[in-house]
Write a structure and sequence with these properties.
Number of strands: 11
Largest sheet: 7 strands, mixed
Strand order of the largest sheet: 6-7-8-3-9-10-11
CATH class: Alpha Beta
Helix content: 25-40%
Structural class: alpha/beta
CATH superfamily: P-loop containing nucleotide triphosphate hydrolases
Order of helices and strands: EEEHEEHEHHHHEHEHEEHHHHEH
CATH topology: Rossmann fold
Strand content: 15-25%
Number of helices: 13
Length: 322
């Protein structure tokens, strides 16, 4: 697969406090996002997905591994990052926190143009971005302040601020988590329309597999710093192979059968267990179903998934099950 954005062998380690071991927030990730493709990065809080997203944006330099965009390796000098961030934009989950309450909508959207020294018609560019984000007529919103808008309108302003620079990829971190259920569908439909109209690629970071089902072409399920299952969304979400993915899916309202309640919290990323990193919480292993591979689950590490389009899983039990 020819990736617009590619990560290879990505590791991000943070120093431990007071002599504690370093925390391996991202612990070996390969990931591709193709042109015009929406990839959902899914997992519990603390699994490393936001750190991975920030690393792909160039906000956190990797401890090891590479990020390439359009075939060129990402550099971390200020000029290289500035050029990169014109092509790759971030959309945060909390529009209230990412919009300055003292700035009008016009100034919020125009900020990126001013930072990058845009030489065209600023007013026309802002109007077009607001219109594409679904705020029409755009001039009606120019002089309004964030507190005068609904939550959905504020999120559309944030999206307009990302669109105004004409990016090729957006990274949306929990883009609808703070919105009412009635508005979430509108924002997801907007992201899909932008993909169709502009050929825009997106990485959508979420804990919600239902959201992934509605918007993504591919899904990558992350646990304790590593992607444990990935593939086309229909393949992964209709026939999940990793016990962790099965557990995440089981709590959706439309899921058949009883929810799988995972015991305990994800392990400390400074103390990643041997073998499969999920084995201490694995309901399949605890039930005795995986007895034939139990020793491997506890002791034998699994390879990094390649991140290509085909469905892949990092699980001894699943790989041994016909």
């Amino acid at each position: 697969m020819s990736g617009l954005l590619s990560a290879r062998g990505l590791h991000v380690t943070f120093a431990g406090r007071r002599g504690a071991p370093p925390a391996r927030a991202v612990d070996g990730v390969d990931l591709d996002i193709g042109p015009g493709e929406i990839v959902a990065l899914v997992g519990e809080s603390g699994c490393g997905k936001t750190t991975l997203a920030r690393t792909l944006l160039g906000l956190v330099p990797p401890t090891e591994g590479t990020v390439t965009f359009g075939g060129e390796r990402l550099g971390y000098a200020s000029r290289a990052l500035k050029a990169y961030r014109k092509r790759v934009q971030l959309v945060l989950q909390d529009p209230s926190g990412s919009l300055n309450p003292r700035h009008t909508v016009y100034d919020a959207v125009a900020e990126g143009l001013r930072i990058h020294g845009y030489e065209g018609d600023e007013r026309a560019a802002v109007a077009e971005a607001l219109s594409r984000a679904g705020l029409r007529p755009p001039e009606r919103f120019f002089l309004r302040y964030p507190h005068e808008l609904s939550g959905g309108q504020r999120q559309r302003v944030v999206i307009a601020g990302a669109l105004v620079l004409g990016p090729e990829l957006i990274v949306a971190d929990e883009p609808v988590a703070s919105l009412d259920a009635s508005v979430r569908g509108e924002i997801l439909a907007l992201l899909l329309r932008l993909r169709d109209e502009l050929g825009l690629s997106a990485l959508v970071v979420t804990h919600d597999l239902g959201l992934a089902w509605n918007i993504a072409d591919r899904v990558a399920v992350m646990y304790l710093g590593r992607i444990v299952e990935t593939g086309p969304v229909e393949s992964v979400l209709t026939a999940p192979r990793h016990p962790y993915t099965q557990a995440l899916l089981s709590v959706l309202p439309e899921s058949p059968g009883a929810p799988v309640v995972l015991t305990g919290e994800p392990p400390d990323p400074s103390r990643i267990p041997s073998g499969c990193r999920f084995h201490a919480r694995c309901h399949v292993l605890a039930s005795g179903k995986a007895s034939e591979v139990a020793d491997r689950c506890r002791a034998e590490a699994l390879p990094i998934l390649t991140g290509v389009a085909a469905a892949e899983v990092a699980c001894h039990w699943s790989s041994a099950t016909p």
